[in-house]
C-alpha cells in the first residue's frame, strides 16, 4: 500500500526518527503509486501556495515552512522552526528512487534523535 502523509512538527519529513509517526496530521492510503501520486501532486501544489519556503530531498519528501513559525522543544528548552511535511511512502517507508520502477521501499527509521542538530551551524538551510 502507498500512503500520502502530511506531518507537522520540528522535523523535516526525510528524517524518519523513531517517533516520526506522532507528527502525522493527515493520511490517505492507495493501492497504486499512480493514485497516491495524483493526491501528492495536488497537495504539493496547494501547500506551495500556503507556505513561503519549500525544500525537497526526494520528489516524494517535501518540507514547507514560513520563517518565524516556531514550536517549543522541551528537550532543547528553545523554539525550533515548525515544518509541514508532505510524504509519499510505500508501507510507511521511503520510496527508493533508484529502484522506483519496481516500487521498492527503503526503511530509514531507527536514527537516534538529537536536538543538537538544530544549532545554527548544523542546520543546513
Structure description:
- The chain has 125 residues and is mainly beta.
- Helix content is 14%, strand content 38%.
- It has 1 helix and 9 strands; from the N terminus they run E-E-H-E-E-E-E-E-E-E.
- Strands 1, 2, 3, 4, 7, 8 and 9 form a 7-stranded antiparallel beta sheet that branches.
- A hairpin with a 2-residue loop joins strand 3 and strand 4.
- The longest helix has 18 residues, at 33-50.
- The chain starts with a strand and ends in a 19-residue tail after the last strand.
- 21% of the residues are buried.
- Residues 101-125 have low confidence and may be disordered.
Number of helices: 1
Task: Report strand %.
Answer: 35-45%
**Secondary-structure-derived class:** mainly beta
Q: What is the first-to-last residue Cα distance?
A: 32 Å
- What percent of residues adopt helix (DSSP H or I)? 10-25%
Q: Which whole number gives the mean pLDDT? A: 82
Low-pLDDT regions: 101-125
Based on CA atoms alone, the radius of gyration comes out at 15 Å
The multimeric state of the shown protein is: single chain
Morphology: globular
Main β-sheet, in a few words? 7 strands, antiparallel
**Element string (H = helix, E = strand):** EEHEEEEEEE
Q: Could you give the count of β-strands?
A: 9
